[in-house]
Amino acid sequence: MQKRTPSPPVNPSPDKPSDFRPSLINLGWLLVWLLIMMFTVTRMPQRPKEVPYSEFLTQVESGEVATVEVSEHQIAYTLKTSAEQTADEAPAAPETSITTPLPADPDLSRILRNHDVEITALPTNGGNWFGGIWGLLFPLLMLWILWGAFANRMQEGPAALNVGKSKARIYAQGSSQVTFDDVAGVDEAKEELQEIVGFLKDSKKYTRLGAKIPKGVLLVGPPGTGKTLLARAIAGEANVPFFSISASEFIEMFVGVGASRVRDLFDQAKKQAPCIVFIDELDALGKSRTANNPFASNDEREQTLNQLLAEMDGFEPNAGVILLAATNRPEVLDPALLRAGRFDRRVVVDRPDKKGREAILEVHAKSVHLADDVTLSKLAARTPGFAGADLANLINEAALLAARKNREAVTMADFNEAIERLLTGLEKKSRILSDLEKRTVAYHEVGHAIIGTLMPGSGKVEKISIVPRGVAALGYTLQLPEDDRFLMMEDEIRGRLMTLLGGRAAEELIFDRVSTGASDDIQKATDLAERCITLYGMSKILGPVAIERPQAQFLEGLSQPRRPISPHLSETIDREIKELIDQAYQRALELLVRNQDVLERMAQQLLETETLEGDTLKTLLLEIQPSTGLQSWLNPGHQRLQALSNNSRGDRQYETPYQLRPS
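RE: above sequence
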């Protein structure tokens, strides 16, 4: 499944200004305000010194006052310059002082004339008219500037005022360049979605017969299988507007915001119908409601979910609006979402099979220069369980490795190295092991390989390495299945347990002691044995009884809590698990004892070359011999059937709720 860069979102309303225009307007208002403030500060005269009236009279009588400006409420005067000032010095500007005169002083004019003071009388209403007008206009101007900035912020849509608006990215009609030709490996899903495309292109074909197109289509599947890419391909094929949003973008801290965004999203979609609304990761919004939580009725997420339910199939119909959603956890969705009339159709987008993987590799390999030795069918056979995103990453990793080695084309060796990188991690060349650690790792990995070769249903052992990789792997045994498997038989599970415990058994056989290197193997073996007893019903004592609840359908590692059981049953389960693991370990030890000479030769050669693969490994593995009684332990069902057959011939009755008829 080829990934392309999504087309940029298109503004649905062309009259709306661009996002940067309000910011430029606000910057312009700020510059204007700064210029006005600078002009005001520069034009503002310096406030003169204010002195008492008595001091003013004393200065007049002492002959220090040069000029006087008399107004109705104050007297402004300047003093005479200093006589000591030389001719070369520039004359200093006279300092102006002000004083407040008495209301009526008839002697003032006589005193000023007697001391030769220059008198100037100002008009009664001759104040600073500019300052008065500016003092009136300045607050109005500031209010005007603030109002303009606020209006621009309103137009831009601040978070506090625009919090209820939908955050969906809108792709205009024809902007999505992805089509069904770019999607490979999910042919069944594409066939199901062709009806959606056909309805959007020619709705009369369906409506003339009275048919109704599904209102909602739910894409479910593991991560990386191409659910989002399929939604984009539908938009590209149908040539209609495409609304894309993640379910987590509806939920906010404020109550009611999510429901408001849902309403706004569907309002926009109705205006551009026919169109597609795509909600990714629907489980973030549509989790099942529960009555156990007393506060659930006031939950913001539940209000958003209720609004979504009403918009999908409420009182008002949504003609021409098709809702697509994607999730990898369909088991947690609310049943009201999955009923008929809402998400009518559920399309499974599962991991591709061998043919699908080959088709996906062909799509991604179009932009990569491949060497002549590259066979995509072989790569598809070596990558079972890989999703579309994993295969795209494989192509990219191989291309990076080829570029690092300055090659002209990507070779098969680059793909093999890329598969090892994805499965086991990067090489840790800086991790230096001691001689004892190397020998322990070598015998450990050879023990895995010897037992894995003889086990039913196991993959082919392709490589053994003692080069550290990843976080904690000091060595690894690369064992790839030859075919896609969807079921595991009981003998295959028991063989898998023996293979996991084979490394520890080899350490005990050679060194007469064990190390911590088998901790991950023991953990995996214990988990597998527990599932075998509690989930698969393969216990001879408990029988076909499921104690554990199954895991999530498309997500690994997410299991539901175990159902309530009695202490006696819990003790029986623990005893059955321990017995199964002990038997697998004992059988692995017996098999290694029978092939100890092969174990020694393979380990010594591995210590010399650090890797075993190809014809050399194949020749050594052909010398392995099975131990006695191995098949009877791997397949206990055969023994049970044989016992039933023998007892039925003797016309014996079993201590069971049922009887067998004599043959």
